[in-house]
Amino acid sequence: MRSVARKLALQALYRWQLNAAPWQDLVREFGEAEDMSRADAEYFRTLVEGVWRGHDELDARLAAFADREPRLLDPVERAVLLIALYELSARPEVPYRVAINEAVALAKRFGATDGFKFVNAVLDRAARSLRPHEH
Predict the structure, then answer these.
(1) pLDDT, one tens digit for every residue, the chain (135 residues)
(2) How far apart are CA 39 and CA 1, in angstroms?
(3) Among 6, 9, 27, 49, which residue has the least CB neighbours within 10 Å?
């Protein structure tokens, strides 16, 4: 299931922000998580590798859509936003509403109290720019 893959990717990318590691190590470490049996393991790997490889470009996009530098964001919200921005920019088969809804759900579950509102606003701006044909 892709929702579980996104949750595990969030956890891996949160850890990566606190303690940098190659994407392969993150995939290996979180690939043994209890939830992995319910996750789309290939999509989990795709998300972690895609965000890890493209984080400079994704951070630049994030800075353009947010009102602050990515390094100043809460690590949970930053990881959620990076995953969703990766999906919006590199995974056209994922509808923009799915990317936004999944990100907001993760931010509600793991982020700061009102962090999901920030995530929603940033991703709404991003979707209008990156997926204008879907609006």
Answers:
(1) 999 999 999 999 999 999 999 999 999 999 888 889 999 999 999 999 999 999 999 999 999 999 889 999 999 999 999 999 999 999 999 999 999 999 999 999 999 999 999 999 999 999 999 999 986
(2) 5
(3) 49
The secondary structure of 63-124, three-state, reads: HHHCCCCHHHCCHHHHHHHHHHHHHHHHCCCCCHHHHHHHHHHHHHHHCCCCHHHHHHHHHH
Report yes or no on whether pTM surpasses 0.90.
yes
Angle in degrees, 0-180, between the axes of helices 2-18 and 96-110, rounded to the nearest 10: 60
Domains and CATH numbers, the chain: 2-134 (1.10.940.10)
Nearest-angstrom CA–CA distance, 65 and 40: 29
- Both tokens assigned to 123: 């991703």
Q: Alpha-carbon dihedral of residues 45, 50, 100, 88, nearest 10 degrees?
A: -130
Phi/psi for 11 (5° steps) reads: -65, -40
C-alpha span between 104 and 122 (Å, rounded): 11
